[in-house]
Amino acid sequence: MESQDLRIFKAVAELQSISKAADRLDYVQSNISQRIKNLEDELGVPLFSRNNRGVTLTEEGSRLLDYTDQILGLMEEARSSVNPEKWKTTLAIGAPQTLSAVRIPRLLSSFLQDNRIDIRMKTDRAERLQEMLQYGEVEGIFVNGTFNNVLFTPVYTYDERVVVISPKPGEHSNELPGDHLIINSDQNCVYRRKLLDVYMEKKESNRTVMEFDSLEAILQAVNDGLGISVIPADVAYSRKELQSVLMEELTDPVRVSFIVKQGRKQSRPLKQFIRFLEGI
Asked: How many CB atoms lie within 10 A of CB 55?
């Protein structure tokens, strides 16, 4: 069993596709297939179940993936320990757009002042981030909503203040209606749910929903007078362009957690990052 075999296996497991793994690693597809077959023959068990959509890990494949993450992580740590000038350790983490906008960059800036680590930051929807964590694409993720507490465990939490932002009356001469609920198109977005809950409680039936895929689009829509939204207070108070917006802080904050996969050996960079978070 060679390290490159494990890297190939890990790529196929993460992408659930031999062809996509071949593209990522710049190999021909037949080479990837043969390396996986050789690994299965060596271990004497199937590592993947094949189907029309791609491949999925077998029970044995899932166990091997856990060991693969540990082995490749230890190899990286060994290189960094022997020659830190040439080999920096890396830490891959993920977060949704709302946290990546302000809070996470501030945390990383402070963390990296005392740590020689390369950070790989992934930004995506909550559901996709949890998939990335499950399959080892990242070592930890920030979540501001529910998560699978069977697979993952929180190692750090904090409460995030949130605000309702709305256009100032009389700011927009084009007489836009301003009665839309401006929400993220992600059904699992905690701020989307928070806004909808607020206006269900107020029983305001005259507001319609307008969905956007990005935080920037939501901010621009409110700033242009299209309607109201709910966003983190850190984002609202840091944006100078929100000159035509009223802000009302809600009494209930949003709980944010940094979660890792249960049972997976933590790399040295991850342990350093967790210790940093605990000391904030």
From this structure: 19
